[in-house]
Amino acid sequence: MIRFSLNNKPVEIDVDPNMPLLWALRDILGMTGTKFGCGMAQCGACTVHLDGQPIRSCVMPLAAIADKEVSTIEGLSDDASHPVQQAWLEHNVPQCGYCQSGQIMSAVALLNEHPNPDDETIDNYMQGNICRCGTYPRIKAAIKSAAKSSQTSFNYTLGKNVGGQA
Amino acid sequence: MSRQNEIKSVSRRDFLRYTSIAGGAFVLGAVLPSMSPAWADSSEVVGSNSLNLFVSIDDDGTVNIVCHRSEMGQGVRTGIPQIVADELCADWSKVNVVQGLADEAYGSQNTDGSRSIRRFYSTMREMGATARAMLEQAAGQKWGVAVSDVFAENGMIVHKPTGKTLSFAELASAAGKLTPPQVQDLTFKTPDQFTFIGKPMTSVDLPDVLTGNTTFGQDIKLDGMLYASIERCPVVGGSVKTFDKAAPLNVANVISVIEMPKQSMPVLFKNLNGVAVLASNTWSALQGRKVLNIEWELGDNQNHDSDVYLAELEERIVTKGKPIRQAGDAYQAFDDASHKVAATYTLPYLVHAPMEPPAATAVFKDGHCEVWACTQTPQSTQQNVAGALGIDKSKVKINVTLLGGGFGRKSKPDFSVEAAILAQQTGKPVKVIWSREDDIQHGYYHAISAQHFQAGLDDNGKVTSWLQRTAFPSISWTFTGTTDEPQTGELSLGFGDVPFDIENISCETHKAPAHVRIGWMRSVSNIQHGFAIGSFVDEVAEKAGVSTAKMWLNLLGEDRIVDPKTQGFKYENYGESYDTFPIETKRLKHVLNELMLKSGADQPAGDNEGWGISVHRSFVSYVAVATKVKVENDKVSVLEMHSVIDAGRVVNPDRVKSQQEGAMIFGLSIALMGEVTIKEGAVQQSNYHDYTVLRMHQCPKIVTHIIESTAAPGGVGEPGVPPVAASVVNAIYHASSTRIRALPVSKHYSV
Ligand code: FES
Ligand code: FES
């Protein structure tokens, strides 16, 4: 039995502790907002936060997250009101949308660490997130907008009681 | 609006049949013209006179508009409703987009060939105008006033003299009882009255994407569903000799191990030979797959080596080929020329690698099959699933999910066929999940190719002879198993339609047998042809001592319509009528001139920097691209890109812009780093670490210019791609004097 907190809600699941968090989220907990793109930490589609740090859930065994805090795209806000989501809306960023959960989770982490990032910081931080549709210019613009709109404090609050059932 | 489309009132049940939801008080159906794909003649051709486009208004005022095409980031689920809603004068906040099921009544639903808007623009406007006319008539009757005294606005009908209003909700039932007017009696908005067409409407799916509340093919989950992962033969045409059935079953949560039915050539959209492991979750299926220990019978293609193969094509391509279009005597004129240029260009195999690997879920029950899939081609899926299961296609229902990118990969329904076979065999819902490795190693590849060009110039730098040859394995091989040379459909993509005004010209092909599944990928053969022509014009310009832009203008000649048929080539023109969509040199020149004006590509660049340009017409749209690079310490950095597109009338400029941005980036991936190599018949790459695609730090500043036009809408999804690679290598040449003729650039420089 592995226990952890998912979007501020306690969960416990009884599966192979070697199973990567990604598959536990998607197949066992029914949280499909976190996407599968490569399975080997190459694309960033599966990015979630573990104790506030961005991680690739496709290579994170469940054993390693026991008793920790996991937050996913579903926990960012119920209504796309988070400043990063709002900036994404403003720049009409997504094309197919598949990579965007991961992009947004990486961008939120980036802005927590660097509230006012320059181009190079954005490039370095975001280069682990592939977008095959090619939304990079808009992602970059949206990150800059979000930085501007939340210059003072960028401590986001997670949506409450958003999560899957085991 | 000249075609005679029939638009009629239909029942709620009709709506249900095509969409899975019941229609409202007022339902209209229309007939779209049928069509066949521009290439791949063996794909399904659907003709039908039944209803296929719908709008329905509920008693609460919701306007349901059916989108019968697949959404994969191009914005079609927004673009189609924008057109209908505009003529209808609907309230955009009341518009609900309903995804159509697979049905041949829709005409082709193949979301490929960049034609969703271009094929349906007029019919969709007629549809909206018909509904509006009926609502106006219903209001006139209710009030007992002349229809000429009422007008529609923002989801209401307004009585002009008094200003009183009735909402669409209040009128839907009454309007549903009226007979629709004839198309010739309809009134249409003038472009200055458009409220949605031509506006950057936000994508209807955007809020869900931002909160992760989307359902892609990979996201489907049904009760009691099994997750399947399939180990497929590394060589196309190979088959399973032996495997260990017991070992995977010892892995926790693995439920069954099934050998896929053995298939033979042609490959079509059949399953590949292999073994499936089914489990109660994806991870367990993947673990089980690792211990299958399959021994393969590799078959004839195990000797295929892409390096050796490309060297053979390069040898063949410099010899005289089979002419497909000719004028004058290009050989004699070349011999007589004062100056001569010749060059051979090559491209490797490429794979689509959409962010969402293919996935399909199927249920088989009581002789019926239902499928949920991220497919670009629901009807072909329906037909191929029916064929694989041996049931009639009326017993197969296809639900189209969102697509996490398509680029042509998801036009092939092989993954749905796999899911259906496994659902039939297990009697349970089965989701087949392709891993990234499966996607890279078992795709339908963009063909490896070689092109050879020769030009002869006179003393004034005028081109008097033009010779071009191309060789690549054909997509048709996928359907026939025997085709061994490029086909007319593929040669119509930027090769046989070369728009130059040259007296002596010869366009030729060479043989190129296929050894892997070949498929269409975003802009298809325009990729290699656009690269070769765009590069060669740059080389010829240098020989003539003029700018590349000047050479393009010289070669294009006077404003005129180019008809390749007059020189013996059966040009297919993307399946469009030549009267509506001819090749116009004026439009090619216009995008080029605009590009030079807007980009500054004719200005001197800094140290180790250079500009490169190219121009290309494809999918009946016109695109020019300028790229600026820096070449330093054996590394190429792309600094900025500008593109100009003339796609006729544009429905949603923001989505056109985003498609252009995406096309620049897709083209950069091809130019800089895209390469699939094959040894002993098997693909050597496996994931994004060795099949690299552009990442954010490699992405330049991108500027898009859209030509304002009232011409019929052309394609948007693909036409941006073909000029990119040539603009990049030309820029590298102007920055470094190194001419790259073999893509990708990463073979020569770090990127
Ligand atoms: S799926 Fe985890 S990084 Fe690609
Ligand atoms: S939006 Fe499609 S992969 Fe990024």
UniProtKB/TrEMBL annotation, chain A:
Pfam families per the UniProt record, alphabetical: Fer2, Fer2_2
Ranges where the 2Fe-2S ferredoxin-type domain occurs: 1-76
Keywords in alphabetical order: 2Fe-2S, Iron, Iron-sulfur, Metal-binding, Oxidoreductase, Ubiquinone
Ranges in a coiled coil: none
Protein name: Carbon monoxide dehydrogenase small chain
Signal peptide: none
Designated gene of the protein: cutS
PANTHER family from the UniProt entry: BLR6218 PROTEIN, OXIDOREDUCTASE WITH IRON-SULFUR SUBUNIT
InterPro entries, alphabetized: 2Fe-2S-bd, 2Fe-2S-bd_dom_sf, 2Fe-2S_ferredoxin-like_sf, 2Fe-2S_ferredoxin-type, 2Fe2S_fd_BS, Beta-grasp_dom_sf, Diverse_Oxidoreductases
Organism (species): Paraglaciecola polaris LMG 21857
GO terms assigned for molecular function: 2 iron, 2 sulfur cluster binding; metal ion binding; oxidoreductase activity
TrEMBL record, chain B:
Any Pfam family matching the protein: MoCoBD_1
Aldehyde oxidase/xanthine dehydrogenase a/b hammerhead domain mapped to chain residues: 211-300
E.C. number(s) listed in UniProt: 1.3.99.16
Keywords, comma-separated and alphabetical: Oxidoreductase, Signal
Membrane-spanning ranges: none
Source organism of the structure: Paraglaciecola polaris LMG 21857
Record's keyword annotation contains Disulfide bond: no
The protein, known as: Isoquinoline 1-oxidoreductase, beta subunit
